[in-house]
Specification:
By secondary structure, the protein is mainly α. Helix 2 crosses helix 3. The longest helix has 26 residues.
């Protein structure tokens, strides 16, 4: 159980950080992180970090795929956690 807790913290911090890096790169017109990568990290457990990241950095907030997508993924993850626990 301790491993799962550490994993969830790490993946959320990782996605949060990547969104900050991607925002900075977008402003500088540099190479960007693929949307597919950001979405996969949310599916792998980083949805809360994704939600916090898009609103903290004001990045991808106009993309329904991210604002609604991360929220739906988080709800599915929470429901799964309650169901299987």
């Amino acid at each position: 159980m301790k491993f799962i807790f550490i994993y969830i913290i790490f993946i959320n911090l990782f996605l949060f950080t990547l969104l900050g890096i991607d925002k900075k790169r977008a402003k500088l017109h540099k190479w960007r992180i693929r949307e597919k990568t950001l979405m996969c990290l949310a599916i792998l457990g980083g949805s809360l970090g994704g939600i916090l990241g898009i609103y903290t950095f004001k990045h991808k907030t106009k993309h329904l795929k991210f604002t609604l997508g991360y929220t739906i993924i988080l709800l599915i993850q929470l429901l799964s956690l309650f169901y299987f626990h």
